[in-house]
Amino acid sequence: MGDSVADRTGLSADFSLPEISGLAMATLLLAGGLIGPTLPGMSATVHRVLTVFLIALVLWLTEPIPYVVSSVFSVTLLFALDVVDSFAAAASGYASRLVFFLLLLLLFSNCISSVGLDRRVAERLLAGEYTPRQTHRSLAAHILLLAVLVPSAMARAVTFIPIVKRLVDAYGLTDGSGFERGAFLLLGHVNPIASMALMTGGGMALVTSEIINGTAQSVTWVEWGVLMLPPTVALYGLASLSAAVFSSVDDEMIIESDETEPREAEPVEADMDTLGGLTRDQRVVAAVMGGTVIAWIAGSFVGIPTVLPAAVAVFVLALPGIDIIGSQDLREVSWGIVFLIGAMLSILEVMESTGTLTYVIDTLTRVVPFAALSHWQVVGVLIALAVGIRVLFSTGSAAIVVALPIVLEFGNAFDVATVPLALSVLLVVGSTTVLPYNTTAVLVSMDRGPLSHRDVLTFGLVTMGLSLCVTAASWLVYWPVVSGCC
Fold first, then answer.
1. What's the rounded Cα separation, in Å, for the pair 232 and 218?
2. Where are the strands (E) in 61-159, listed by range?
3. Across-strand partners of 12?
4. Which residues, listed in sequence order, are joined to residue 130 by a DSSP beta bridge?
5. For residue 264, what is the DSSP state?
6. Which residues of the chain have pLDDT under 70?
7. d(Cα 471, Cα 64) in Å, to the nearest integer?
């Protein structure tokens, strides 16, 4: 029996078991929220808010419908079930600076890729003579450097996959060689870690910084770099070395530079006016990117909001005569993630204003004996909770926006320092990929490379273990030292 379900009108649809289960569960939850009894000690409002929260989670996890649709539906339910006074209150999360900042960064990242600037940077990789192990180290270094330009692990993975394939061919290696497996572990598991070094390095870092700013204290772009750059680089370096050891990358074969010289990239623009090998559009994007970074640094000292330089950069790149950002770039934005984050922020705000979050925390506190745990045991339980939520989601940003506010509420209840806790959750969650769908970069690397499910699971546990070690060292040694600077 096939997967396709057809009706007599000739229309057909493909339904997977998780999708059918998700729709059925969401329907049952909605029915329970409308006509089901409330638990003792729970108000009708809390009951309905929890219903919307659970429906949203089920729809996001099983994905029977696009994120945009499920997010709009969840926000509309908040208003329709009369748990807020107005639709504006139900959709308040979309007024968050985070939503617009993320949209701007996605546009910026897309235009960097569309003009081929990321490929130009990546193709500088092959120069001189290299052994596979040296090439592996060079590949890791270039991915880390490219993270400054391209705030998307997925975009970086797609950029480097063709280069890795050419390297494998140049070495004359067979499919599934140690070098190829190590390279794809870099692109899938290690690559996303680089996005945590800067506040604007990717969705997870941006979401975390905005949640910190909204619940604890203001963290500037420079302060984030001081707090996160050394731990992230240390974790990235350890994970890169582990990928080489895990895959048994050899250090004997040598490849000559003339054999590895990459083919010239196909021009992405008709404009071939070059300077230093860069097209006109590539030079413009590089200049605007440099100016934006300078503005973020200066703004950390003079109080310029981080969203302003990003907005100016996108505005400049869309100006007539420049025309680097256009309608096509808007269509290619990951609108599903943007809408999901806006919806989750809306739901969390309603949960807080209606006392639902307090009810959840009080209930879980009665179940889990937090009061009997030591400080570090509480931290361990909260990080484990965040990891458990992360395993359920297909993107780190979505997992962070769900898990972090709940974890921070628990942390506040038990006097756990907010900023170190939030950064610890980011480091561990951002380094944990045990299922291929947990991270798009891993999914693509597994699809186009030689990695197996066992490789993904095993190395994901390795990177999670490394992140716990780096987090412990940062919390006990590094962050207390630099906390006076931030």
1. 20
2. none
3. 6
4. 255
5. P
6. 1-15, 121-130, 216, 250-276, 394, 484-486
7. 36
At residue 394, the 3 state secondary structure works out as: coil
Q: For the chain, give every domain's residue range.
A: 17-83, 98-331
Start-to-end CA span in the chain (Å): 62
* C-alpha to C-alpha distances, 65 to 58, 69, 336, nearest whole angstrom: 11, 7, 11
**Cα-Cα-Cα-Cα dihedral sign, residues 344, 348, 353, 356:** positive
Where do runs of H (alpha helix) occur along 115-152?
Answer: 117-122, 132-149
Print burial letters for 421-459: b (CB count within 10 Å at least 16), e (below 16): bbbbbbbbbbbbbbbbebbbbbbbbbebbbbeeebbeeb
Rounded to the nearest 5 degrees, what angle is found at the Cα of 200, between the Cα atoms of 196 and 204?
A: 45
* Rounded-to-integer distance, Cα 6 and Cα 167, Å: 46
Residues in Cβ contact with 96 at an 8 Å cutoff, skipping those fewer than 6 apart: 210, 342, 345
Nearest alpha carbon to residue 400 among 337, 483, 326: 337
DSSP secondary structure letter of residue 275: B
Place of tokens 């969650």: 429
pLDDT of residue 253: 54
Position 73 scores a pLDDT of: 95
- Distance, CA of 135 to CA of 130 (rounded, Å): 6
Please check whether residue 459 is in contact with residue 185, taking contact to mean a CB–CB distance below 8 angstroms: yes
Residue count of the chain: 486
Structure confidence at residue 201 (pLDDT): 81
Residue-wise pLDDT tens digits, 382-430: 999 899 888 877 678 878 888 898 898 888 888 888 899 999 999 999 9
DSSP string for 305-363: -THHHHHHHHHHHTSTTT--S-HHHHHTS-HHHHHHHHHHHHHHHHHHHTTHHHHHHHH
CA-CA distance, 73 to 374, in Å (whole number)? 41
DSSP letter, residue 415: T
Q: Which residue has the tokens 């693509």?
A: 444
Rounded to whole angstroms, the Cα distance separating 403 from 441 reads: 21
pLDDT of residue 150: 72
- Residue 138 burial by Cβ neighbours in a 10 Å radius (0-12, 13-18, 19+): middle
Residue 39 backbone phi and psi in degrees, to 5: -75, 155
DSSP string over 357-392: HHHHHHHHHHHS-GGGS-HHHHHHHHHHHHHHHHHH
Q: Encode 11-46 in three state secondary structure.
A: CEEECCHHHHHHHHHHHHHHHHHHHCCCCCCCCHHH
pTM, 2 dp: 0.75
